[in-house]
């Protein structure tokens, strides 16, 4: 199972410990298996060499994230449009101040 993770050595409280970094594909595969319910969390933990609480966390993230898939892109698009609008208004404000300053420095606002 080690081909799916990167193992780093970290020092914690004076002791060397191994830290695994899993890929998104691996996490989703394990979470999907947990959602299916064909095996217990402990069986999956043993099979994939992952702590059971980590599998529970990935399963929870999968279930919560699945709501976004079916909520539609309209909500995301509206939010991104609002953010873009706010960013552009801020930029227009900065440019207007900068233009006024330049006009004042060059003598156009006498």
Topology readout:
Blueprint lengths: L4 E8 L2 E8 L1 H13 L4 H8 L3 H19 L2 H34 L4
Antiparallel strand pairs: 1-2
Helix pairs in contact: 1-3
What does it look like?
The chain has 110 residues and is α+β, with helices and mostly antiparallel strands. The chain has two domains: 71 residues; 39 residues. Helix content is 67%, strand content 15%. It has four helices and two strands. The chain has a two-stranded antiparallel sheet with strand order 1-2. β1 and β2 form a beta hairpin. It is elongated.
Q: What is the H/E string? A: EEHHHH
- Strand percent estimate: 5-15%
Q: Give the uncertain stretches in residue-range form.
A: none
Number of strands: 2
Q: Residue share in helices? A: 55-70%
Strands of the largest sheet, in order across it? 1-2
Beginning-to-end CA distance, first to last residue: 75 Å
**How many structural domains are formed by the residues?**
2
Mean of the pLDDT scores? 83
Number of helices: 4
Structural class: alpha+beta
The best one-word shape is: elongated
**Which radius of gyration do the C-alpha atoms yield?**
26 Å
Main pleated sheet: 2 strands, antiparallel
Q: Which descriptors would you attach to this protein?
A:
single chain; 2 domains; about 110 residues; two-stranded antiparallel ribbon; 4 helices; alpha+beta
């Amino acid at each position: 199972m080690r081909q799916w993770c990167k193992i780093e050595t970290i020092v914690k409280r004076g002791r060397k410990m191994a830290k695994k970094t899993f890929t998104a594909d691996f996490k989703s595969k394990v979470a999907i298996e947990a959602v299916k319910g064909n095996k217990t969390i402990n069986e999956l933990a043993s099979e994939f060499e992952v702590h059971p609480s980590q599998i529970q966390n990935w399963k929870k993230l999968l279930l919560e994230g699945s709501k976004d898939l079916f909520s539609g892109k309209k909500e995301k698009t509206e939010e991104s449009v609002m953010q873009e609008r706010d960013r552009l208004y801020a930029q227009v404000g900065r440019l207007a101040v900068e233009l006024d300053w330049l006009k004042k420095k060059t003598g156009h606002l006498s």
